[in-house]
């Protein structure tokens, strides 16, 4: 028996087709927008790792603090035998949970990146040779089917990535997660919290310009993948707090009037000088809002933990 299985639920060419559809749709609408998932090619993933080490970007450190402090409580409350991690990436955060779950039977990392999944599985299996790793190449915002591993199951969605979804998308996502859970299963959710505007804006517009490079990287992705003749230097990085929606928006602002030709899409896109294109929404939460959104998906919030400074929360909810 091999302790490592890899299941692809996404066709090999799905990523390419989705990028084309998103760029065509996003650059021909007003206002223009691109979804944040296209930041993460190899360079973008590196830049994101760099962001997580910036002094201004607190969420990763705050979440790690909570995971380290609360992993034993999470283990005791869930008695999980299967850990499912949505958007697992390098599975770095998962270690704290795995260490607290010595009885864990299976780990099911779910990610769109096959290389991230195999790399993470290899590293994990070196430490926990008995663990069954069943990796899923899948887009967790679409329907998911989980392998028949033993329960109780704990589904973890960490990093605050739920904030990248718009409210209606969040509602649909939480309902689809709920549909994966049997009685006794649980969801561990990471959410960044509403706080002082200056702190939030600094986290998304750091002094050393790493976030600006990360934002502009999406232009390099469409240049490489779709042949777009776009120069990232023609755009400025913008991060703004929307107090009504309680989210940070990242945008790219055209420094002058310009046209971007995208031969692979047979498209020429014109920008006015100063025109802004939204590239990411990163919603920030309050406990009441999280509880209400979970309840709407028939999930009951049972634990709420924050870091010492109250900047970030991990919540546990049950089906
Ligand atoms: C990976 C989606 C949680 O929204 O904070 C970091 C991505 N964008 N800096 C976030 C991000 C700009 C990050 N998430």
Q: Can you characterise this structure?
A:
- The protein has nine helices and 13 strands.
- The protein has helices at residues 14-27, 42-51, 59-78, 94-100, 114-127, 167-178, 197-204, 210-226, 287-296, and strands at 4-8, 82-86, 106-111, 132-137, 153-157, 186-192, 235-242, 247-254, 258-262, 267-271, 276-283, 300-306, 312-318.
- The chain has an eight-stranded mixed β-sheet with strand order 1-4-3-2-5-6-13-12, sandwiched between helices.
- It starts with a strand and ends with a strand.
- It binds N,N,N-trimethyl-histidine.
- Residues 51, 59, 159-161, 163-164, 204, 211, 280, 282 line the site of N,N,N-trimethyl-histidine.
- GO terms for molecular function: L-histidine N(alpha)-methyltransferase activity.
- Keywords: Methyltransferase, S-adenosyl-L-methionine, Transferase.
What can be said about this structure in brief?
This protein has helices at residues 14-27, 42-51, 59-78, 94-100, 114-127, 167-178, 197-204, 210-226, 287-296; strands at residues 4-8, 82-86, 106-111, 132-137, 153-157, 186-192, 235-242, 247-254, 258-262, 267-271, 276-283, 300-306, 312-318.
Largest sheet: 8 strands, mixed
Could you tell me the strand content as a percent range?
25-35%
Helical proportion, percent range: 25-40%
Rg, Cα atoms, Å = 20 Å
Q: Please give the order of strands in the largest beta sheet.
A: 1-4-3-2-5-6-13-12
- Alpha plus pi helix count: 9
Distance between the termini: 32 Å
Structure ligands: N,N,N-trimethyl-histidine
Q: What's the rounded overall pLDDT mean?
A: 95
Q: Which residues form runs of ≥5 with pLDDT under 50?
A: none
User: SSE order in H/E notation?
Assistant: EHHHEHEHEEHEHHEEEEEHEE
Number of strands: 13
What general outline do the C-alpha atoms trace?
A: globular
Structural class: alpha/beta
Pathway: Amino-acid biosynthesis; ergothioneine biosynthesis
Domain Histidine-specific methyltransferase SAM-dependent: 20-317
Subunit structure: Monomer.
Catalytic activity: L-histidine + 3 S-adenosyl-L-methionine = hercynine + 3 S-adenosyl-L-homocysteine + 3 H(+)
